[in-house]
Model the fold of this input.
Amino acid sequence: MNESQSSDDAYVRKFGFREFSGIRQNRVYRVFSVGWFNLIETIRRSGFTKVLLIFMFLNLLIQDAVTVLITLLLPPEFMPITLNQYFQGVYVESVLGMVSLLNRIGDPLLEFFSFVSIISGGTSFMWLLLVAILGGGLIADDRLHKTTEAYFSRISRIEYLVGKLLSLIIFSTVVVTVPAIIQYILLAWSLEVDIIANIWLLFWAIGFTLIAVLVVSTLTLAISSLTTRRTVATMSLLIIGIVTSALPSAFGFLYNPDSPLLLIDFIGAIALLGAVLLGYDTIKLNYQNLSLYNGVGLEAGMIVAVVALVFVISLLILFNVLFRRDN
Amino acid sequence: MSIIHLNEVSKRYGEVVALSRLNMHVREAAITGFVGPNGAGKSTTIRMITGLARPDSGEVRVFDANPYDSITVHERFGFVSEHDDLYPWAKVRDSIKMLARLNVPRLSNLDEKISESLQAVGMAKYADRKVSALSKGMRQRTRIAASLVHSPRLLILDEPLKGLDPLGRRTIMNLLLKLNQDDKVTILISSHVLEELEQLVDRITLIHRGQTVAEGSPEGIRKLVFSYPHEILFTSRPNDMKKITSSLMQLDGIIRSLELSEGKQEFMDCRVITLQPELFFDELVRISVENKASIVHVDAISESVEKLFDYLVG
Done:
């Protein structure tokens, strides 16, 4: 008998069984455990993801610094708007830019000078890239390794689904919502505007980014649930996101900014939803004015419908994969 | 008292009938073996019991609850599925911790319980290794450790000994026996190898083509196994074969039928059907020695579990 064998026997003799007694951890704890473990392990497993995360945070720092710097270098007294309007315009553009990929949405307040959404556009690319990498394997890996059985024999399918969504939501909140909050404080501080008087703008930013995070996370998870290969899911989301975002420009919608076909860019549609939530009648899309309530072309209702449709279809896919089949 | 009841349970996957009016009971504090050939419906049955699948008809009760609809019953059992379902990139301790967090009691010392479970299956020293660096047997033991962390009253294991080396197999069997004898943990364990479970279980349920074909003690099942007609093929040179078969024909009650045929090259094959295989082999050796006749090949071609189950089903 070798050393390993004898120690194994000793372990068997030492093992003391203590019957389960007590109350199980609550549902929130279980869901959070699924979300946190999946987020940490997905980041931990890939060196490339870690490098991208470093780039992401560098990008956020640069975005904040450049936005603040340019607003300071271009004093609003040279523009036909008040300092407070300037702050609101810059902040809205920056937050919308963090979601809008290729199609740039401008705030009508900054009628003659719209630049901030370009600066924050890098964040939207990095965010989509990281969400695709992190989220692509969340369900695909479980289906490949049959880990779903390990989960479903312990927790309900709803807890599993919410836990997986939570891992993407935690991540996206850190890279989109938190920077939006930080930027609000930095901009208000550097332009010396009243933080409290504009607090509604902060609530809008938090609400809008959380909606964007929820919709993109659900879509990512839905794509992941359709395959057993994480790379297929990751590449699908990236290609669909970037191609649909490029289509309006590629087919000349740029010269007809009021076309409903712009909503092919479903990620851009989420950004347009941000403008709708602000109650804007008119926005600047790719530097051209677009009316959302004139009954012609692209309308606010269509934007809400497209975002809701993407969300509902994603949920239906998830429910179909996780509930209808016995897997 | 039974912990698991399956009453007239049926399940189809498209055109394939996985289970057909299956009945099964698992007694409390017993080790029940669940044996059947590949594709018999063992895993489907276990998926019903663990709430992973819903029956098309019939009733599944575990701790007097429906496991598919009642998630609370899941905290009372531990489950090791047939799949190698750990994340390869995660560390052993982290994998177990994540799964344990899903069904451990509140305020328990989780790290201590994980260490105990890892020790129980002889995996304590590998706790910080990545799952991908473990052998198949070690991964199997890790999964069993994960199912033990919350000290379940019922342990359900789907082919847990598959892929284990003899040492790992013995460790797991000792652990299961200890859990059952000392702590009265009810255990349901499946396998497609009957011999594998005979030393371990109190009762055996045989399943084939989605139906229970026999249920009883290991001794009773063993008798059943040896009562079906075994088909044995042996090969010899023509002269030797003549001597052997003429002697075999004189044996009373051992041989049900005997058939000779041309074998490969200069050899002859003899196909025998007997109800007493052990006695037949003893006699075959005796006749061969007494007649100085050599036998070049013997094959018990109906020893496979599938043949047995086909016979039992009729």
